[in-house]
Amino acid sequence: MAVLESLSALLLLATYCISWDPDAGLVPSLTKQQGALPNATSKYHDAFFINDGNDSTHWTSGGCLPSAYIVNGYLNVLKGRCSNEVCSSSSHDAKLSDVTDGSMYTGASISPINGTAVFDLALKKPVKVKYVSIRGVFFGDTFLEIWEGNRTVFTKTLGLADKYKTETFNVSQLTLGKIRVKSANKFTLTEIDALGESGCTERAWVDLGTVKTIGVIRTRHWAGSATLESRLLTSLDGKMWNEVAKLQPGALRAVFTKLDAPAQTRFIAVEHHIAESKYAKAYVFEIDAWDSHGQWGVPPRGSPNKASLRDMFGVNGIWGWGNNKYSSLLDDKSGPRLYNDIASHARNYHNLGWDVKDPDNDPGYVNMTAGHGTNGEWWLNWDTEYKAWANANLSVDASVQFTSKGGFPPSVWGDAFHDGFRYGKEFASHFGPTIGNGLIQAMEVGNEPWDYPADFYAKILDGMSRGVKSVDKNLLVLPGAFQAHDMFHASNYIGTRVLQPFASNIDVVNGHFYSFMVRSDGVRVMTHPEDLESEFNAVTNLLRWRDVNMPGKPVWITEWGWDSETPGERCRYTECVTEDAQALYGLRGLLILARMGIQKATWFFYADSKTCDNHIFCRSGLTSSALHGFTKKKVFHSFHALMTTLGDKHFLKVLKENSHLYVYIFGDVDNGKAGLWATDVVAWRPVTADDTKPYQASFRLPTKPLSAWRISTKDGVPVPAGFTHASERVTFDATPEVVIFKLPGFPVSEHVQIIG
Ligand SMILES: *[C@@H]1O[C@H](CO)[C@@H](O)[C@H](O)[C@H]1NC(C)=O
Ligand SMILES: *[C@@H]1O[C@H](CO)[C@@H](O)[C@H](O)[C@H]1NC(C)=O
Ligand SMILES: *[C@@H]1O[C@H](CO)[C@@H](O)[C@H](O)[C@H]1NC(C)=O
Ligand SMILES: *[C@@H]1O[C@H](CO)[C@@H](O)[C@H](O)[C@H]1NC(C)=O
Ligand SMILES: *[C@@H]1O[C@H](CO)[C@@H](O)[C@H](O)[C@H]1NC(C)=O
Ligand SMILES: *[C@@H]1O[C@H](CO)[C@@H](O)[C@H](O)[C@H]1NC(C)=O
Ligand SMILES: *[C@@H]1O[C@H](CO)[C@@H](O)[C@H](O)[C@H]1NC(C)=O
């Protein structure tokens, strides 16, 4: 295929001409764009914290009661009133505007006329107030009167003892018309203030600069126990605010709020209603916003996937697969020969510490093969282990695992580049397919090496990948798992770790994506893969990053999955879903990854944990734990059913993808002259597993399917599904279960243009 080869040479040339963009995966938050300005109802100078991209820094409100509200024109409804001729007094020369200027250092001296000193603040339009404050110097009994209409509803007597004290009175809720202060003696008033009916309400906001369309807002807004209520507000002018959601003030994690419909807005605010207790404050940490695609952006259109579902699907395992002995000693009731029923590859957490005591050291693989262990472990022989994996027809991806906290802090690396190079070279020489024993097809430079400074990790990656390639071009090199959607709030951003100078030594882009979402109460759960709020969507950002920086190179999702309990193995954490949901979401997740063009998708984990049930990933197994004999969970049976019916097929085309129905065409990618050959249609309702209300769905398909099969979670065996075909449409009962329609087969180009 000479034509193809020169085409790919051209493509390669084009690759080197394109410019590198480390942030190509990001969909920038609208609040982080130029011209956007944060501000707040108090402590303006700290408002930048809500937009600095750091979830750990926050704006703190200026406080409210007993007297901090006074300086704040949003809270103090009398602020500035005396500048507007609503005040009068017995002294003609008193500077009355000082009484409501919010400053305790300025005041008006009121002298008696005809034996009475009097000050009046009479509002043209009464206002509701909750607290009234007064501060001044009094030389004898001085009477504070608060009037509602023409009635005095509140009085207090002030005297010498109140000198320079801010006295704040709870006046319940009254409608203030007039405040009068009078005395037989002269007095000085430095302040008269009132807290309005909305009480201690504080807001922090971002002014986007211009009106934008927004669909999703992210807030980290935890506000402490003093906050009674929190709201998410938007505004076109910064004056009239609309409530778009109630927020839970106690939500610890950042929360995403999806608007019911995209909205035109310029200002986005978090408002806290703070308890009316002394010195109570509230916080806002961060505000971000996007259009209705959220931080993921628009997904790719979906082009034919070169990998079949069977090629794609793999499983994360580990030395001995939970048996505490070499896999070569296992039968098919556990280990590689249990999981190869559904998986075509397996990924191992290959601990760097098992190979070397120090990154400078030679792992000593020659000695290892001779039965004398590695530099790290005297008993270890990886060859024995990996041979058992290979004998089970699993291709092996070794994730060389090291972290700063896990024994390899920057201080133990003599020289990150050279140590990395040395190890990579030894590893490829021993395990690589070209001059090594060929037991390993791919090597990852770190699993989740997220606790290193980005530039330090980049040096290791540079060194290790060059070391591998210096001896074996055919051993695939992957970076650790990184994401491309969030440069601010996470320590695993690809843009600062996988860098242009050494990208040519990297064969595959690697990510871990779980279907996490944070509920409005700040609690993290796992949701269905189609949920717009699911982090599973972050695959889209990684693809976008790849398209710009490493076009043509495959993307592997080396960890994904759902946790579920199974009889005898409880799940005591919020992220767990039911066993049915795990099975349904697992299948749908794989189909979606196929549609995204992912080359390999490696399920985490092979089995449940036998030592924990109380935190994420304890129950992510395809099978139960060793304690329950590695019993296949529903998800295992479902993948088995999918592989038997559709395993050798490839994603070809999206027929429908809306909130009611997902429909994809599967088939063969190279059917001689016909090219793309449709053989199957898969369809399901993209909803939660418990949403089983009947939904009659239809999609356009000119050819009548031969049969239809539902992959039921009951026993994982495909069962016949009913459907009708009339006027070139298929109609069937769509459920959260995947239905596979078998087709007579036709070229995709001929029949399938119409979406609908
Ligand atoms: C923030 O608000 C204060 C008070 O309204 C105002 O004085 C200040 O100029 C504002 N800052 C910005 C950056 O808009
Ligand atoms: C975020 O803020 C915290 C607290 O001030 C600080 O320790 C941390 O270094 C900041 N993170 C970044 C990425 O600047
Ligand atoms: C004070 O008393 C004088 C004389 O009785 C009177 O003319 C004047 O109007 C009074 N002034 C005020 C402010 O009541
Ligand atoms: C006080 O106000 C009430 C209600 O506005 C009115 O009915 C009444 O006549 C007023 N009384 C005086 C003495 O002005
Ligand atoms: C203020 O007074 C109202 C009405 O009597 C009462 O409900 C409220 O608790 C008081 N506020 C405080 C802080 O004591
Ligand atoms: C291999 O074993 C020999 C003999 O025990 C030892 O001298 C040598 O240092 C070992 N090599 C490595 C790289 O550990
Ligand atoms: C591996 O694949 C070969 C060829 O398809 C097959 O004969 C053999 O049974 C497979 N081995 C296992 C353990 O599945």
Distance between the termini: 37 Å
Helix content: 10-25%
**Oligomer, anyone?**
single chain
**How would you write the strand order of the largest sheet?**
20-19-18-17-16-25-24-21
**Which small-molecule ligands are present, each listed once?**
2-acetamido-2-deoxy-beta-D-glucopyranose
Q: Please indicate the percent range of residues in DSSP E strands (runs of 2 or more).
A: 25-35%
pLDDT below 50 for ≥5 consecutive residues: which ranges? 1-7
Q: Sketch the major β-sheet.
A: 8 strands, parallel
| Overall pLDDT confidence | 95
The gross shape turns out to be: elongated
Number of strands: 34
Number of helices: 12
- Give the helix/strand class: alpha+beta
Gyration radius over CA: 34 Å
Structure, explained:
With 756 residues, the protein is of the alpha+beta class. Helices cover 16% and strands 32% of the residues. It contains 12 helices and 34 strands. The strands form 7 sheets. Strands 20-19-18-17-16-25-24-21 form an 8-stranded parallel sheet. Strands 3, 4, 5, 6, 7, 8 and 9 form a 7-stranded antiparallel sheet that branches. α10 links the parallel β24 (555-560) and β25 (600-603). The protein starts with a helix and ends in a 5-residue tail after the last helix. One 2-acetamido-2-deoxy-beta-D-glucopyranose is lined by residues 362, 364, 367, 372, 375. Residues 54, 56-57 line the site of one 2-acetamido-2-deoxy-beta-D-glucopyranose.
